[in-house]
Amino acid sequence: MRALVTGATGFLGAALVATLVDAGVDVAVIVREHSDMWRLTGQLSRVVLIRGDLAELARLRDPLRDFSPTVVFHLGWHGVGNEARNDFAQVDLNLRSSLVLADLARELGCSAFIGLGSQAEYGPCSRRVNEEVPTLPTTLYGAAKLSCYHLCRTFLSQTSVRFAWLRLFSSYGPRDKTSWMLPYLITTLHQGASPDLTPGEQLWDYIYVDDVCRALLAVAKTETAGGVFNLGSGVARPLRATIEYIRDRVAPSLALGFGKIPYRPDQVMHLEADITRLETVTGWRPQIDHWDGLDRTIAWYTGGDNRGRTS
User: 158 exposed, middle or buried (CB, 10 Å; 0-12, 13-18, 19+)?
Assistant: First the structure.
């Protein structure tokens, strides 16, 4: 397998690159000229670096042809953070570049194109979700991801390129943005402060980053894996229990500000992925116990040396 990865400087992209390289896969990454590549520091000597922007993919034909990928992992996306969930750039900067990348996969003779979707495509279901649940996104981010799925599926269905789309639920692990819930909680407590929180009554499906990467690799290796797959742990745990576990490990004497932040009007109270289809088709199963994953994440953020990176 020869894999091309977009979004390789991000939390999931960098972790996927490490997983692929460790599995003996030849990897090329598309990286913008001035991207901060701190997450890729240990992998740069092991990958082919292609400098360029997803908005100008046509200019990268020659280096892409030279590398000759067999699989494309499309994780690159503008506007993943909550602050950009309703930016028009969700459409302007993402949809066209994704479709052009799908066309390049066809042109380069790739066998598979694997895109990373989101549970946001479903909207606020507040229950266990399988792939048959109607998609009713409430943000431009969710709508753009759903549109990307339809565009790429429609285009690639007319080619010999296998198309798979993994709708990711909540992932966590080392090297994530500190603005996300679990890293924020860990770093705030580690600094001796008590975080303000909602009442914490939500049931939440968290999946450790290594399991996400193994799932992407499993889909790439499974020639029958096509269409939509939910990607989560398959278990929804009380968010309050996760928060209290982190507090007990990081700063057991600090109080937690449960209830100081009200629920949003559109607050999802039950987020849980039905991962039966992904398990059945690929044989993949989550391997990292939730509490073990939390311990690994806590150790990374509280261990010094670059642990406080915010992006």
Answer: exposed
Task: Please state, in angstroms and as integers, the Cα–Cα distance from residue 283 to each residue in 114, 219, 225, 276, following that order.
Answer: 17, 9, 11, 10
Q: 0.90 cut: is pTM over it?
A: yes
Measured CA to CA, the distance from residue 50 to residue 60 in angstroms comes to 8
The pLDDT tens digits along the chain (311 residues) read: 999 999 999 999 999 999 999 999 999 999 998 889 999 999 999 999 999 999 999 899 999 999 999 999 999 998 887 777 788 888 888 999 999 999 999 999 999 999 999 999 999 988 999 999 999 999 999 999 999 999 999 999 999 999 999 999 999 999 999 999 999 999 999 999 999 999 999 999 999 999 999 999 999 999 999 999 999 999 999 999 999 999 999 999 999 999 999 998 878 899 999 999 999 999 999 999 999 999 999 999 999 554 445 55
Q: Which residues pair with 271 in a beta bridge?
A: 127, 204
Torsion of CA 100, 106, 108, 114, to 10 degrees: 80
User: Of 112, 110, 71, 118, nearest to 94 (Cα)?
Assistant: 118
